[in-house]
Design brief:
With about 325 residues, the chain is an alpha+beta fold. It is built from 5 helices and 16 strands.
């Protein structure tokens, strides 16, 4: 295979109330809202992108938030934990911060030489903060809510729950990831040189129920492609291997293809370009509702249907 992804691009989940979602990810976790748009396939709901200052690939957590969405169920065939990377000495600080914010966080656990703190967002989405002993060189988003020395650096990893490991493991090898370690029923694969932002854990749970994608669950996991020609070549290679892959779709800020790994989780390959400053300046990211050209004629109707979203001033500082 010529496919060699360099790591995670983003994780997209289903949320409930959009204001509650924004308050948690902006204020409690200290991320930046880098794009306020809509679900291009269902423009009656927002698509909110959270990340670092500019929304670089590998820092992004995105949501389709529906106020009345039913609760989902974690299980096999899903990404069941999304993990963020934090500095090694910050796990205790985060445990205290989450507790003070009324978030029930578990005990700090050791796994694969890393400290892990697991918790849930307001809709029940399972998250974790992970401190990698070799650190994470990515710059944090410094927004005033979370001191830069403790701030999230980006995605660390995702955990996929499967009933059977072999076919899923083979799929990730086809995407250019390498097996690195195992611990009990957990297998770790890494892209490129590995480390935060380039890891997927496969959790093998044969007796677990099948997951149900709705509020509080992950919709899909996206992996990075450097550019459109590379993505097109990868798509052709996957098709040649019998994988059912969508056509290349224009997501305005990247191009996407989608397919399912054999265990059932929906995967995406997304391009690094053109990025989130293609339709608004870096200083103003996330401030206004942005629509793709084909939805602009329906802007008035779309805006009327969406609930009002109030953002903290820190999301758009006067300095960059």
């Amino acid at each position: 295979m010529s496919i060699k992804t360099s790591g995670l691009h983003h994780v997209t989940a289903i949320g409930g109330d959009p204001q509650r979602n924004a308050d948690f990810y902006l204020r409690t976790l200290g991320l930046r809202l880098v794009k306020t748009t809509v679900n291009f396939d269902d423009p009656g709901t927002y698509h909110l992108y959270y990340g670092d200052q500019s929304g670089k690939p590998g820092t992004l957590m995105t949501f389709f938030p529906w106020r009345d969405a039913p609760s989902g169920r974690r299980g096999t065939g899903q990404a069941t934990t999304t993990s963020f990377s934090v500095p090694e000495r910050s796990i205790g600080w985060w445990q205290q911060r989450l507790t003070e914010a009324g978030v029930s966080a578990g005990r700090i656990a050791g796994r694969d030489g890393e400290d892990v703190l697991t918790f849930h967002d307001p809709d029940g989405l399972q998250l974790a903060l992970v401190a990698h002993p070799q650190g994470d060189p990515r710059d944090p988003w410094d927004n005033g809510h979370v001191p830069a020395e403790h701030a999230i650096r980006g995605l660390h990893s995702v955990t996929l729950s499967v009933a059977e490991e072999d076919a899923t493991a083979e799929m990730f090898r086809e995407l250019g990831l390498s097996f690195t370690t195992s611990e009990g029923n957990r297998l770790r694969f890494s892209a490129g040189e590995g480390g935060p932002g380039a890891i997927v854990d496969i959790l093998v749970t044969p007796g677990a129920p099948r997951g149900l994608v709705a509020a509080g669950t992950v919709h899909h996991v996206a992996w990075r492609a450097p550019d459109e020609p590379t993505q097109a070549a990868w798509r052709a290679e996957l098709v040649d291997r019998g994988v059912s892959v969508t056509s290349i779709l224009d997501r305005q800020y990247f191009r996407s293809i989608y397919f399912r790994e054999p265990g059932g989780t929906l995967l995406e390959v997304a391009t690094d370009q053109p990025g989130f400053s293609v339709d608004e300046p870096l200083l103003e990211l996330g401030r206004a509702l942005k629509l793709p050209p084909w939805l602009e004629p329906d802007r008035e109707q779309i805006e009327h249907a969406l609930p009002v979203l109030r953002l903290p001033a820190e999301n758009n500082p006067e300095r960059v």
